[in-house]
Protein 1
Amino acid sequence: METDPDMNERKVFHACQHDCPDNCAMVSTIVDDKVVSVRGRKEHTFTRGVLCGKVKNYDQRVYSKDRILYPMRRIGEKGVGKFERISWQEALDAIEKNFRDVIEQHGAESILPYSYLGHQGLLNGMHCGDSFFNKLGASIGERTFCNATASKAFRMVAGPSGGVDPESFAEANVIIMWGINMLSTSMHHSRFVIEAMNKGAIFVVIDPVRTRTARRAHHHIQPKPGTDVVLAMAIANFLIKENLVDMDYIKNYTLGFDDFAERARQFSLDHAHEVTGVSVQEIKDLALLMVNNKAVAIRTGVALERTANGGDAVRAIASLPALTGSWRLPGGGIFQHPQGTFPINRNALTNAQFVEDSRNSVNLFDLASALSPDAIVPIKSLFVYNANPVIAAANQLKLLENLCRKDLFTVVSEIFQTDTCDYADILLPATSQMEQKDLMYSWGHYNIQFNHKAIEPLGEAVSNTELFRRLAQVFLFGDDVFTRDDDEIMSKAMLWDHKNLDGITLQSLTEQGFARLNVGDPKNRTPHRNGEFPTASGKFEFASSQSKSGGDILVVYRQGVDDKKKYPAVDALPSYKPNAVPDDGFVLISPKHHYLLNSGYANFNLDNEVANKQMVMINTADAEVRGIKQGEKLTLWNDLAEVSVFANVTDDVIKGVLVVSHGFWRRHVKGNTVNALVHSKPSAIGQGITVNDTVVFIKKHRDTAG
Ligand code: SF4
């Protein structure tokens, strides 16, 4: 950090806190204790000084007149959004009284925390309230929104490996972005892709939609949603049949090849064409691109897992570099998620020892059901932070109905008054990233970062760490963990003597802002050249030895607590289950919006129709047979709800598929948003969400639609 006393100006290092893999290194300029600009840091090897268009209002967001700056109490009906200011003491008293009454009358499990990645920090992010709620005896919130299935599936075959280094993509001969719109959701990775392309690499995108990323690819392959496992298994079958696999790698570093090969035989090229819609020639060409001693770098995106077949797709795709031996070369292999590479001391953040074996748990994506008055464990208090469930959880209409229950007490800690806030009894003011310290890891690269506090909190906003310190004090929790200040939490948050942190200390991070983990030089890094997969066998497991526990949710998504529920065992090998879509129905997928950060920044994009006009992409042929015109108002419907949208007639999406981005707010579109159409049907592997299996129908708009 630099200071200029004459100008009363300071430069302060930060890391972007949003739910985004890039975790940009930032520097703010502070003049007279006010943030006057926020820029990217050029020195950062991954994000290289550029911030994305989503955060163009970063500093304005800090000082927005719409910030929640004081604790508030609801004064109108639930859902109306009317509040009056109260003191922190009054807010804490109200929470204490409610929680103590609920515990006495119904038990502590009738209190449910709801949170996710509204903040990514190790201090103020996903785990910030875990110790408190684990100690309180509250139900465990299972955060299955993203990566619960993909990481579980990947670990079943490859263990918690970080996989191929995202920076090593620059060394690849072939790059495959599978189910990820990199330019909209991880734009800084594109520099490494371009570097490889400039050296002659072939760039392939596999996505049902011709996204911004797909437009830049040499080859764009468009399988139907949920059929990626069939595509990957057909490639595997072709490679095995044609003797194009690396038998030396398979013999030495993998297990279960014979069983896998037999399973793959079920996926002929013709069958794959019929199921996926991808031509036989395209599948063959893609398979041939992957062989002949090439470094093939595959990145799987979060879209891939969001179907009932998502976990199988991840396992099948992860099998491809093990078949071809691509792991032998720098840039060869697959990048799924690097969380296993960051030596995070999760138990210091979650304190799972406070939780007894039989503790109730709730899959938070199905909050609507959890809040039903007739739920087996009735939820009487809901505490929301780092999340906007009205826009993010399944079955929006049922959720709204249950949020209006008179016997439900809801607390929401937020920066802005979201749709969820409108249902709160107590609103608490949260700080922005400029107003708090944090330690940040990334799920898109191997850098750890220190976020400095640049300014004092505005109004009476408090960081999440301070919020839970205050609550712990109210409930007289005496354990050390509840009195730690932010520096002490940081000192415990990582396993600082782990080899991946060699030479990296809290002090060095404080001074420099970021450091790349000690995981080798991306130019020649080959993490699995000689196998060494962190599985039970130490080998890549084509047939997973973990199939019995394949349904369990990873502890990272369960407040650090092991999943003791009994789920059915999953198939040890990838398999495919067709999605039943009626002839007149469509598969609806709801990806991230190019200009929004999940539901974040919607309130900063209201002057240009970005955030107040829900568009649906529909294929030209599908539109023509229904007489749908460009821009026409339509109603999407199914058994759950109706949603009003405007037609974007385009060939960028394949027939039979509709695309509506998620993240819109009800108050901006004046009606239901896309999650109103989404069922909660957890995936068999890891219990993740299956939103991209949603089936809907179209009708011409009626003014009475929701
Ligand atoms: S949202 Fe992502 S890409 Fe944009 S500034 Fe933050 S970390 Fe960087």
Note: The radius of gyration is 25 Å.
Protein 2
Amino acid sequence: MRSININENYFSIVHEVSKVLSRQNNIKDAFKSILKLLYSYLDIPASFIALYNPIENTLEIKESFGLLKKEKYKGVFKVGEGTVGSVFKNEIPAVIYDPKENKSFLNKMGVLNRFDFEVVFIGTVIKIGGERLGVLGVYKEKTRNLSYENEIKLLSMISILIGFAQKMNEKLEFQKRTFEEEKEILLNKIEFKTSIKEIIGVSKQINNLKNTILKVVNVDSTVLLEGESGTGKSLVAKVIHKLSNRGKEAFVGINCASIPENLLEAELFGYEKGAFSGAISQKKGKFEIADKGTIFLDEIGDTPLSLQGKLLSVIQEKEFSRLGSLETISVDVRIIAATNKKLFELVKEGRFREDLYYRLNVIPIKIPPLVERKEDIPILIDYFLKLFNEKYNKNIQLSKEALIELINYNWPGNVRELENILERLVVMNDQMIHINHLPAYIFQKVSLRRYELDNLNDKNLPSQIQNIEKKHIEMALKETGFVKSKAARLLNLTLRQLDYRIHKYNIRLQK
Ligand SMILES: Nc1ncnc2c1ncn2[C@@H]1O[C@H](COP(=O)(O)OP(=O)(O)OP(=O)(O)O)[C@@H](O)[C@H]1O
Ligand SMILES: [Mg+2]
């Protein structure tokens, strides 16, 4: 009987790969670990996982090991192109014994030139249930043995495991999206109360803002809202929609930054069943859902360049087609876009198309940060105090000193931060809010301004404040599972400042 000469490593690596896949819930990390295992167990110095992109009809390297970043980005293959493209097309594994000489091996990434030993390339198809998903490619040092039969078997087995994980992941992502979509449509139907009165402020800037809003509500021109995070862009977008003659129709928001690049196009324009793997049924895009209403393109500055052209043509023509379909759909939508980046700067850097910028920038509305309109702070505080007192059935007031500190603070998170702090203060307190109830990072500036403290005539205050600071730091550490960098961010401190205080107050770091 022929003895089977299979390296013991082979069993171990399959075992390790399956362990990685069952443990990791982030597919990218899992793929990275698998490629690392190939290195540790099989001495494979470079490898990659290329996945099929059905929209472009290409294979793209998604994870790699031993490849430089720039090499990885060059890894895009048409179906049938080169060895990788052929392995995918023909669904047959390939061994290239002399990739440097072999013309069918394209060496697109240019990796070969870096090895100072001879290599073979092995590619196996990643496939599950009759569906091809991609290719696993490895570079291995050439050995004397001429048959790579065992390696191919092993890599094919690993490819199946990879395919399985990828498929599960796609399904999960899809379900998550569908669920979020349904939730959003439901929320849209519940009429939200929004009127111009809900934009609080007495500053000149806010008055101008309100005047502009009233002027633009009933023209259909595109509005571009620019302002730091938390300044009220989403609020203004909803108010414009609500006051316009589209107010009874849908208001559909999409955050262009939070959706993975390859899904954004499908989200915006919808797709037909089978347009790509994972498209298990037909789905309407945001533009279609927003028909007759308003579409709110949030964080427009983060739209990938590859999609900006299509967006431009939709804005111009109000026409598009779903992915995987040739049929043109026309919609009647008003577009409101928002960005917390300076969009024109992105144009200058070549990250945003100039023509699209001008299309969007028909009516620019800039919302200034809260530090530039401090006169709005007291009235906003008043508004949120009332709101949260009502919500939590309390009657909390704010001392004058505390108010001064809140006005002096620079509010990097703008109105959202103010709203959150007030909610916390109302929830956490039962009486008047004094300076010592304020979060540590606001009050840190207080200790620098001794003269203001002295005016308060409270001899014990500094030690009281230190106690509070210590408590705040302990709370922040607890809240962040004792991850110092996170706690520092929460407290608006640098890591060094936090370390210094941990030391000073002798705070115990537990796990
Ligand atoms: N002038 C204002 N009057 C009352 N509430 C406001 C005002 N500005 C902002 N808010 C409230 O502050 C919070 C943050 O505002 P919003 O979500 O509109 O900010 P944003 O600019 O869209 O932020 P991001 O860039 O992070 O999306 C919301 O709860 C909003 O209702
Ligand atoms: Mg917003």
Note: Residues 374-504 form a domain with the Helicase, Ruva Protein; domain 3 fold (CATH 1.10.8.60).
